[in-house]
Design a protein that fits this description.
Number of helices of chain A: 15
Strand order of the largest sheet of chain A: 9-8-10-11-12-15-16
Largest sheet of chain B: 2 strands, antiparallel
Helix content of chain A: 40-55%
Order of helices and strands of chain B: HHHHHHEEEHHHHEHHHHH
Number of domains of chain A: 2
Number of strands of chain A: 16
Largest interface: A-B, 61 and 58 residues
CATH topology of the largest domain in chain A: Rossmann fold
Radius of gyration of chain A: 21 Å
Structural class of chain A: alpha/beta
Structural class of chain B: mainly alpha
Number of helices of chain B: 15
Strand order of the largest sheet of chain B: 1-4
Strand content of chain B: under 5%
CATH architecture of the largest domain in chain A: 3-Layer(aba) Sandwich
Number of domains of chain B: 2
Radius of gyration of chain B: 21 Å
Strand content of chain A: 5-15%
Oligomer: heterodimer
Chain lengths: ~425, ~350
């Protein structure tokens, strides 16, 4: 018992973190484990944008932003520990970048009154603000992604996908299973056949899955992968000579770390995205002057400008805009999480505002409301150029097929409301 | 001098056979119980409950379970994660199907269901042992995880395959679900851990435990002196799985609140619990608690020291933490292969002689 006791006493002394006075936005990141390569880029982008605001503007509305980082390793138990460790420090909003951790936090944030912002991941039906009061997943969710991908394929095929075979290669977890229902609905509507091919986490070994693809010869492959699974899949696709231009990844399967290890064979691989890519935006001048040059970049700034860095930065942009909106509504700079929730519900990011920030045409227009916590769901496609080693955007922002998605969201959120005993509020 | 036995006379066989024959030990035990039941519930907050005590108690139950199978009965198992998943999914199905029945009964039933599954996967132990049995239980691990991923009935056909624990109350207090207070969470785990540890201690020093240990030490000799290997091995699997199933049920319902089988109950969990009993000490009740404390608390402590006090980058701290925990495991196994429990026993021996060692 002696060891236990000393450990406990010491842990207690360390755990008692003082309450912070500024705006606190914890960054539950992961820089280790099978998803660490991807998580690092995202966390850096997230940190750097807040550093930029602190350095250039003195924070938001005069209040500095603190971004305490906590390593979750994409592990739900560590995620709980991080959440509990940070929630009493005045934390306003959580962005855990993990669907598993999101599922755990959804009931908790309702009780603790914290905002949960899950751009492009998490529980899709979180879009329904009537049931999920504290959850926001703008600008797009998994089902939007699936629908936009199918829409793109429809365009490629002159509006007709009947008789085509589409395979879904997915991470065998809550994350990967999310799009199945939407794709099944779309398959019925457009007459293509869908085959579902699960890959167990972490997914380094996919020989049998790609053997199956080689045998079935699907016309297109859609992938919902993350971490080391992405590069393994792209490598296997290259090995079986699957045409890369018929291979579309979700936004979490479209970063440099996923395609670079495959080299020239990855040329032409496509992925969805809900934010712009590349460094061709005025904001990078500011980031260079205020963040990178003074040596304040997160972890040395080696990932600035990568696809996931941009996405992390975009999440920070949306949170910062919501804080700004909340400050205007509340009339005070020092806002609470409840006030931030109001800010999110009244959030409006117009193309003009994006241009002001220094990110013209970087994301879709976002307009949230009490019942719509997910925005328009628009996304676009990017394609990898292996010789130039960069992504290029190949479509404009496209609307998903809400005719399929809206009833599914209503159904899933109703199921959650019933399970958790929530009465949907009136909006 | 500290462990003075002089004057501590036993006047009955009952006194002689008690769990803590030395008076100071007994007082220490009562003191720990008094602190655990009487003081901690009033001081505990959400962080202490969720990051420290609840995982510690739940893993201690799992370690007790595996210790019965591996430490006492000598049957190696790598299926702990899978059996915990059985406990978690059973309690989920039970609590959603019969919401009006007490959660405690559901947790016990989940343990019972896991015991049945454990016996089923324990059948190969009658023919094979050692590494071969480890591989058979490994099959259980992968099969069970695959099953809970594959069959939508187990997760009530939810879109993502996640299971979520709805709110259930005990004596008017929520013990599962998001509104659970820290003391409620802690106390339900503490009561289960206390009762199960008491049961484990008394089982292992009775007839059943002696049979298990006879099988462990030499199964042919045990058979010759009249121990039936069929009942001994299968009862070890049943009791062990019962404990592990309860740990899984508590892990899902009280601690995590939502779980996904591959992530929460993967092979890593099996290894984690196995490490706990190896570090803590095979065939020791105290060792199960000590091992769980070592594996659960040390990473949290290191993280708080490295990131919280030294301000190191989180990824560097996470890597250093892995290295320190790994190095400590190797160090302990070299210095004391019988684990923390043996280390504690040696300390006691020394204390009894102190300050006049021979």
């Amino acid at each position: 018992m002696k060891t236990t006791f000393t450990a406990l006493v010491a842990a207690g002394m360390m755990a008692a973190a003082p309450a912070m006075a500024d705006l606190v936005v914890p960054n539950l990141s992961y820089r280790t484990g099978p998803y660490g390569a991807n998580g690092t880029h995202y966390a850096d982008g997230f940190n750097d944008y807040f550093t930029l605001l602190n350095e250039r503007d003195g924070g938001i509305g005069g209040e500095k932003i603190q971004v305490p980082e906590c390593e979750t390793a994409y592990n739900t138990e560590k995620g709980v520990e991080c959440y509990e460790a940070t929630k009493d420090t005045g934390a306003l909003v959580y962005n855990p970048l993990s669907t598993g951790i999101t599922y755990q936090l959804i009931p908790k944030v309702g009780v603790d009154k914290k905002v949960l912002y899950t751009p492009g991941y998490g529980r899709t039906s979180g879009k329904n603000g009537k049931v999920f009061e504290w959850v926001f997943n703008a600008p797009a969710n998994y089902w939007d992604g699936a629908s936009v991908a199918i829409k793109y394929l429809l365009d490629e095929n002159g509006g007709d996908l009947s008789g085509k075979k589409i395979a879904l290669v997915y991470h065998n977890s809550a994350y990967g299973k999310e799009p199945i229902r939407t794709l099944q609905g779309l398959a019925e509507k457009h007459g293509f056949t869908l085959s579902e091919i699960p890959v167990d986490a972490p997914g380094q070994e996919q020989k049998s899955q790609w053997l199956q693809i080689r045998r079935d010869k699907p016309d297109y492959v859609i992938m919902y992968g993350w971490g080391v699974m992405n590069q393994a899949a792209i490598q296997e696709a290259a090995n079986i000579r699957f045409p890369m231009e018929n291979f579309i990844g979700i936004w979490w399967s479209g970063s440099e770390v996923d395609v670079l290890p495959v080299g020239a064979a990855a040329n032409g691989y496509k992925a969805l995205t809900f934010n712009g890519v590349g460094m061709d935006y005025p904001i990078y001048d500011d980031i260079k002057t205020h963040v990178i040059d003074p040596g304040k970049a997160s972890q040395g700034g080696s990932h600035v400008g990568s696809a996931l860095y941009s996405r992390g930065m975009y999440a920070a942009v949306v949170i910062a805009e919501a804080i700004r909106t909340a400050q205007e509504l509340a009339g005070t700079a020092q806002i609470s999480a409840e006030q931030l929730r109001e800010g999110f519900e009244n959030l409006e990011i117009t193309p003009a505002r994006l241009e002001e920030i220094g990110l013209p045409d970087f994301g879709p227009e976002i307009k949230l409301s009490c019942d719509n916590h997910g925005g328009s769901g628009m996304a676009r496609l990017q394609q990898w150029d292996a010789t130039a080693k960069q992504w290029s955007l190949i479509t404009e922002f496209t609307e998903p097929d809400q005719e399929i998605i809206a009833p599914l969201i209503a159904e899933d959120s109703a199921a959650y409301a019933q399970e958790a005993g929530i009465t949907p509020r009136d909006c | 001098m500290i462990y003075r036995e002089a004057g501590d006379f036993k006047t009955s066989y009952r006194d002689d056979g008690q769990t803590f024959p030395i008076r100071l030990d007994r007082w220490g035990y009562y003191a720990v119980l008094a602190v655990a039941f009487g003081i901690i519930p009033f001081l505990i907050n959400d962080y202490w409950a969720s990051a420290v005590f609840v995982p510690l108690l739940i893993y201690a139950i799992a370690a007790l379970g595996l210790n019965i199978l591996t430490g006492y009965a000598g049957q190696v198992s790598l299926g702990t994660g899978g059996f915990m998943a059985v406990g978690a999914y059973s309690v989920y199905k039970l609590m959603t199907a019969f919401p009006e029945i007490s959660i405690v009964i559901h947790i016990l039933l989940a343990g019972g269901i896991t015991a049945l599954v454990g016996v089923l996967f324990g059948l190969p132990s009658l023919r094979i042992k050692g590494f071969y049995l480890a591989v058979a239980t490994l099959a259980a691990q992968f099969f069970l995880v695959w099953l809970f991923n594959k069959v939508p009935w187990f997760y009530n056909y939810s879109a993502s395959g996640q299971i979520n624990a709805p709110e259930r109350t005990l004596l008017g207090h929520a013990v599962t679900g998001p509104a659970t207070s820290a003391p409620a969470k802690y106390l339900i785990c503490l009561v289960f851990a206390f009762v199960l540890a008491w049961v484990a201690r008394n089982l292992t020093r009775g007839t059943l435990g002696r049979k298990w240990m006879a099988i462990r030490d030499m199964d042919i000799a045990a058979e010759i002196i009249g121990v039936n290997p069929l009942t001994a091995k299968l009862s070890a699997f049943a009791v062990s799985s019962f404990f592990v199933g309860i740990a899984g049920a508590l892990l899902f319902a009280v601690y995590l609140g939502a779980a996904e089988v591959g992530e929460a109950f993967g092979i890593n969990k099996s290894f984690l619990v196995l490490f706990m009993i190896i570090i803590g000490g095979l065939g020791s009740i105290f060792g199960s608690f000590a091992g769980a404390a070592f594996m659960v608390l040390l990473p949290v402590l290191l993280k708080n020291v490295l990131v919280g006090s030294f301000g190191w980058p989180t990824n560097l701290a996470a890597h250093i933490e892995l290295m320190i925990v790994g190095a400590l495991i190797v160090f302990f196994l070299i210095v004391e292969p019988h684990g923390l429990a043996r280390l504690w026993a040696l300390t006691k021996e020394k204390l009894r002689l102190w300050p006049f060692p021979h």
